[in-house]
């Protein structure tokens, strides 16, 4: 179980994007963060989410707080999770 922090890859557990991977890009307070898929990669829009609706994975990418989607995708490409996401897109 990872900790919720900027760059942490998570799975959403609630809402229409439940089951999809996303990346924490900003911490708002102890209950809310901003995540992005990014949308063109995983289908998760950049939005505010309750941390109770996230399951952190053991993967953390190296991004700055509030990084844009392009930077998030570039950082994801350097991880094994990127290949996993691409396989899920092809399957889905």
TrEMBL record:
<dbReference type="GO" id="GO:0003723">
    <property type="term" value="F:RNA binding"/>
</dbReference>
<feature type="domain" description="KOW">
    <location>
        <begin position="6"/>
        <end position="35"/>
    </location>
</feature>
<dbReference type="Pfam" id="PF00467">
    <property type="entry name" value="KOW"/>
</dbReference>
<dbReference type="InterPro" id="IPR041985">
    <property type="entry name" value="Ribosomal_eL14_KOW"/>
</dbReference>
<dbReference type="InterPro" id="IPR008991">
    <property type="entry name" value="Translation_prot_SH3-like_sf"/>
</dbReference>
<dbReference type="InterPro" id="IPR039660">
    <property type="entry name" value="Ribosomal_eL14"/>
</dbReference>
<dbReference type="InterPro" id="IPR014722">
    <property type="entry name" value="Rib_uL2_dom2"/>
</dbReference>
<protein>
    <recommendedName>
        <fullName>50S ribosomal protein L14e</fullName>
    </recommendedName>
</protein>
<dbReference type="GO" id="GO:0003735">
    <property type="term" value="F:structural constituent of ribosome"/>
</dbReference>
<dbReference type="GO" id="GO:0022625">
    <property type="term" value="C:cytosolic large ribosomal subunit"/>
</dbReference>
<dbReference type="GO" id="GO:0042273">
    <property type="term" value="P:ribosomal large subunit biogenesis"/>
</dbReference>
<dbReference type="InterPro" id="IPR005824">
    <property type="entry name" value="KOW"/>
</dbReference>
<keyword id="KW-0689">Ribosomal protein</keyword>
<keyword id="KW-0687">Ribonucleoprotein</keyword>
